[in-house]
Structures are given as structure tokens and as C-alpha cells.
Amino acid sequence: xxxxxxxxxxxxxxxxxxxxxxxxxxxxxxxxxxxxxxxxxxxxxxxxxxxxxxxxxxxxxxxxxxxxxxxxxxxxxxxxxxxxxxxxxxxxxxxxxxxxxxxxxxxxxxxxxxxxxxxxxxxxxxxxxxxxxxxxxxxxxxxxxxxxxxxxxxxxxxxxxxxxxxxxxxxxxxxxxxxxxxxxxxxxxxxxxxxxxxxxxxxxxxxxxxxxxxxxxxxxxxxxxxxxxxxxxxxxxxxxxxxxxxxxxxxxxxxxxxxxxxxxxxxxxxxxxxxxxxxxxxxxxxxxxxxxxxxxxxxxxxxxxxxxxxxxxxxxxxxxxxxxxxxxxxxxxxxxxxxxxxxxxxxxxxxxxxxxxxxxxxxxxxxxxxxxxxxxxxxxxxxxxxxxxxxxxxxxxxxxxxxxxxxxxxxxxxxxxxxxxxxxxxxxxxxxxxxxxxxxxxxxxxxxxxxxxxxxxxxxxxxxxxxxxxxxxxxxxxxxxxxxxxxxxxxxxxxxxxxxxxxxxxxxxxxxxxxxxxxxxxxxxxxxxxxxxxxxxxxxxxxxxxxxxxxxxxxxxxxxxxxxxx
Amino acid sequence: xxxxxxxxxxxxxxxxxxxxxxxxxxxxxxxxxxxxxxxxxxxxxxxxxxxxxxxxxxxxxxxxxxxxxxxxxxxxxxxxxxxxxxxxxxxxxxxxxxxxxxxxxxxxxxxxxx
Lengths: 566, 114
Prior knowledge:
The structure holds 2 protein chains of 2 kinds.
Chain A (H helix, E strand, L loop, with lengths): L1 H9 L1 H13 L17 H9 L22 H27 L23 H10 L17 E8 L8 E12 L17 H10 L14 H14 L3 E5 L2 H12 L5 E5 L4 H10 L2 E5 L4 H14 L11 E6 L11 H11 L2 E5 L14 H4 L9 E5 L9 E5 L1 H10 L1 H5 L5 H15 L6 H24 L11 E5 L3 H13 L2 E2 L1 E3 L10 E5 L6 H18 L20 H4 L1
Parallel strand pairs in A: 2-11, 4-5, 4-6, 6-7, 7-8
Antiparallel strand pairs in A: 1-2, 3-9, 8-9, 10-13, 12-13
Chain B lengths: L12 H19 L3 H19 L6 H42 L5 H7 L1
Helix pairs in contact in B: 1-2
């Protein structure tokens, strides 16, 4: 726990604010106490930006800027043209299916139901029938080995243009894996490392057959939660069986009707679902844009709840550590300043950033040199960096104790399985360096950081458009045109590299991309092979759109001028 | 989302750079009378056309329909320009030269000369 003390001494001015925050954490109303804080609101921002008081060891780092380079104009025109042509052909094929020239392979209503409200006429189904199915062979590829840095794919072909597949029986071996969220390389089946997992399985078995509240609270669960709390540097933590369910089932327990949720534009579906299930009022602010967030805070605090105009019961700002489709980092110090100024709570979803950023893998709080006790609710998943399954919520002891009794997941969901829990425990111990080897926190984390920097800088040099922060291990490479998306994925598989390409519903329709997830288990030779293939393929398909001039999105500013507003 | 004001006047620059470098290599290979390279290059151009128009994802018979339609339209454009552009250019030149020559004359004379 020495580390948190050092962080306290680095951020001298922020420390006194955290004391005051604790006194006010029990207050229910927001928005009417601003006046006494006005004169002090300028200084925490300056101390965050300039950081003159660090004692030299854990200096808060200056973050690199996120880059969102824009493509040349002709790329936008061609993208729209390509989508237009394929949509026209989609209408043509739908006409043929309606007339009867062609058999409809997708589900259809029965004859008797043809007069009912149509089920399959909306754009989603049209898109699925006519665009997605044509390139469907690039997704859901069956894998027949463990998804480490290399894996084996079962070869499958389609005789009727991707409506049905059949496996040929052959396997494509040693395909380099650039798609798995294996940031620290814990997806391994080395028997020596998994000895403790085998022992715990022998002791506890595999199934728990009960919820945490009934008979499913095993001692290994308590051990895990203590370890997670120690790892993050907070008071207490609670673990759940599924990462998605952690968000969607716990946000309704924290906020309800009469509360306000301010969520980032590009938040994950689990956060959006949790927010909608809670019944609170939701406002969306532009991605990573502090001006938009502050404007929204001011407006909503001034106007109050929707019809009654009373003060909000709670204001919750929901952000993610690393956004998985963009690779951008959250602007944590600025959000903390805003949060204190406007008395809001912060919910930080570190699904991709825990274990993957920060000098010792503690996530974005360590990356920015911020005390984790300042964030009210720290959420994360064990699926990505720890090679297991599940999620956690960490924070103050009162918060976690409240969730133990009020969360839907704790009451109704089955408890986590013991081998999975032991895998998380061994992974955390490895990262912390407690298990006696230097494998974890020195080798893996440094290897991940080196691989990330190497891949990103080389890709930028080659002329691809890459989004996101220079430290994030999620690397989106923009492809834009619909034809190139399918061609890229197939060509990479031919060169024995497995990539994930993402298209319309998950990204804006004109920004299709290929997403690379760097792993600590990738060796320099693998990365070189990937880079060489990308170089050749980039020239052959012509996806090197970068003009070596990155233009920031106009809404992002370098200077934040909060003091002008107060 | 896309920067309209920035590079509209060089919108096809990157495309033409790629094609020029490939064309230069193709020109060199034509000099060496290497038909295989030429065929590969034309194949690559066709592949680029498939990718850019989005036709790449369609089934072969749909590609044929689109190619036929496009070829027909391009042929019609070429035929129309071959037949009508010389006439239009000649008429325009006549009109402007009449204007220059006919400045001292009155407009009534201009109308009568038609």
C-alpha cells in the first residue's frame, strides 16, 4: 500500500480535495454549493497540468494526444458510392426474391402471416441479407487451438456465397493472432503456470451451483476480492461472473429515477444497457470532449429534473479507460476537476485498460498519476488482460457493501467458477510480482508497452491512418471502403495472419476499420511479419490514406479554460 | 467528418500517384515487351476497380450486369461526344468570333446574318 501514499504526496493540492469530497459524498443534492468552490477551481487544474509538486518517482505523465486523422475527400465520396451501388443491388436481389426467381435463404414469415406487421423489412435485416452475408466468411471463424499469439483455424468454404459453410477438414496452422484481447499473454496452457489452478479445482470443483447470496460465497471469492482491492489500491472490491453483466446489472443498483447519467458518445453497449435499465435521465456528450461535458453539466444542473425542475438526486459521469473501437484514452485529470467542481460521481469502466496501461499495469489511474480513491466507482473486466472471465467493481467499502446486497448480479447470478477465480488470482499475483518471479510486472508489461509503441510507430510511418492514443494497445487501422474490408481480411488470412475487421453497426458507416490488439506474447519476429504483410497488402489494395499530417478533430482543444467560466 | 475545404482540388492526387508509379513501371515493362507484366498490371487495375466501386462483394453474374451497364453508359457518352462535340465547338467559336467582329455593327445585322 506504499504506492498510494506516494501518489498522495505527488498530487499535493488534490489531496485536500479528496478529504472534502469524503465529507460530501453522503450529500444527496447537487448544484447549489458551487459558490464557495469558485475561487479554488482554477488551481487544481493548474496543478494537474503543470504538476510541479511531484517527488520524482511517480511523476504524473503528460499524455500524448489522441489522433483522429481525417481521410482525403475522395475516400468519402468513393465510400458512399460503393455503399450506394451495393444497396441498389440489394434492392434488386430483394425484388428477385419477392417475385420468386430466387429462393430466400433468410428467415421469412409464413404465408398466413404475410399480412401482419413485417418482421424482416427494416434496414437491419436488409443490411444483413444483402451486405453482411456477402462477406460473412470473415467473422465467426472456427478456431481449434488456444487463442494465444498464434493459433489454428479450421478451414471452411461456402458453395452458395456464404449462406452455408462446410468445413473441409484441413486446418490452417500457426496463424498470427492479432485479434484476441490477450494483452498480457495470459491465454496460455503451460502446465507449470497452471498448477495452482489445478489444485484449486481439485479442492473446490468446477461448478458452484448457487448465487453469491445463497450458498455460493466460497472462500476463494473473498480471497479474490481482497486481492483485487489491494491490486487497485482501493478499500474494497466485488467480483461478478460476466463483464457485460457487471455493467448492466450494477448501474441500475447505483442510480435510479431522478438521477442523471452523462455518458460518452462511444460508450460500450453494456454501459448503455445499464443506463437505460436504471431509468435515470441520460445525456450523451461528445467523445472525450470536456467542453461538451461541462456545457451539459451546467445546463442540466440549472434546469434540474425533467418536469419538476427539482435538483438531481445524483449525477453520474460514465466513461471508459480505453475505448475499444477508437483506441483513445479518457482525459481523466480533466474529468476529475469537472467532477469536483460540479459535485458529480465518476464511473470508470477499465475493461481494456486494466493491466494494459500504466507503468505497473494498474490502469488509467496509474497512467495519469491519479489516486484511484478519487474515482468513485472503478469497474473492470477480467476477460482481457487476465485471461479469465468476469468483472469487478471496486471503490469505497460502503459502496461495495451496498452492492453486495442490492446488485441483481449478486442476488440472481451464479457465482464465479473456482478455476476461473484461481486463474485471476494467479494472474494478479504475477502482475504484482508477489509470486516470486519477475515474469509479470517487469517482463510482460514492458513487453506490451514496447510492442504497442513499435507497432503504432511503424504503422504510422508506413502511411496508414491509425486512430487513438500512442500508448493504447488497441490499434484501429482505417479501411473506409466496403469492398476493401472483405478483401483485406481474406488477404491477411491467406498470409496466415488473423485480423478482426469491423464494419457498419459497430462503427459509423463510413469508417470501417481493422482492429489490431497487441499482446505481450507477440515476439518481435511476429510483429515484423505482420508489418511486412501490411506493407505489401497496403500497397496492393491501396489503403495507405495518410497524408502524414494529422488534423485534430475541431472540437478537441489543447487548453481547457475552466477558469474563464467561473 | 471529412474536411471539405482542405484538399478538394487535389482529390484525385493520391489515386493518380499510385497509378502513375504503376504506369511508369508498366511503361518500362512495355518497352521490354513483357506481356506477362502488362497482363498482371491490367489485372491489378481491374481488381482496384472492383474494390473501389464495391463490386468485389457481389456474385459474378451481378458483376457482369454492372459491368455491362457501365460499359453501355460509357460507350454512349463516347459516341455522343464524338458526334456532337465538334459541332458544338464550331458553333461556339462562330458565335464568339461574330461577337468580336460584329462590335461596330448593330445587333439587327447580327440577327439577319443568321
